[in-house]
Amino acid sequence: MKDKLIEIIKEAGELLKEGYFSNKEVNFKAKKDLVTKYDVAVENFLKNRFSKEFPSFTLIAEESDNTDIKFGDSIIIDPIDGTTNFVNQVPHTAISVGVYKNKEPYIGVVYNPILNELYEAKTGCGSFLNGKKIEVSKENDFQKSLISTGFPYTSGSNQNDLNDVIKKIEIILPKCQDIRRLGSAALDLCYVARGTYEGYYEMNLKAWDVSAGILILSEAGGKISNINGEEYKLFDDKYIVATNGYIHKELILNLNAK
Ligand code: IPD
Ligand code: CA
Ligand code: CA
Ligand code: CA
């Protein structure tokens, strides 16, 4: 299944690339939440091909109405993760596809066609970037750790969420090497998986932002949890915390500090 999945995702990548380099109209789902015709076109392309190739899987996708769709044997799609980057030609944007069997992660693929980087993982088989095995960093000193995060779209309208973002940065920034906000949750998880970042956290993500990245990270030796250090629940948890494992406890402690 993985080879076929990758073949289709690479084809969809051509569409993303075409959109990235063209002038495009931008629509607003909310103040900070952008969408273009390419988000919809990439999603439709993937859904069309997946439903033919993998008819037993339900398809859950960002730009679709998912109300009556049951999560079980499912393919969870983010057609363009990092739409703000896509719109502004920041080359940090990707297609993210996570395959679940009986609600458990089975295959994850994250493809950035602009930088030609394809991350993939299958349960029990490790993680790969363009065919080369990747592993998390071995850094265990929080002060030397590069941490990534994201700002929720709700920070434009919800004062509590904005306060929470600022508070956590205030606590973490002096204690770590530095903080990045590159604008694609799927790639953030892959960057922890490849050892570029030691850790990553963010609030208010959706299942399609992380469905593939969490498998790619766990297969690369990383750890994923909610903000209490418990198992991260794809559709329920407010916070995701993802690290190389070595700094996990300290990141959790800092995220909970008052
Ligand atoms: C967004 C990106 C971003 C994160 C947002 C996500 P989208 O996804 O992953 O990094 O901070 O919370 O919603 O909307 O570009 O697919
Ligand atoms: Ca979006
Ligand atoms: Ca996304
Ligand atoms: Ca998206």
TrEMBL record:
Belongs to the inositol monophosphatase superfamily. Its EC number is 3.1.3.25. This is Inositol-1-monophosphatase. It catalyses: a myo-inositol phosphate + H2O = myo-inositol + phosphate. Its cofactor is Mg(2+). Keywords: Hydrolase, Magnesium, Metal-binding. Mg(2+) binds at E62, D78, I80, D81, D209. GO terms for biological process: inositol metabolic process; phosphatidylinositol phosphate biosynthetic process; signal transduction. One of its GO terms (molecular function) is metal ion binding.
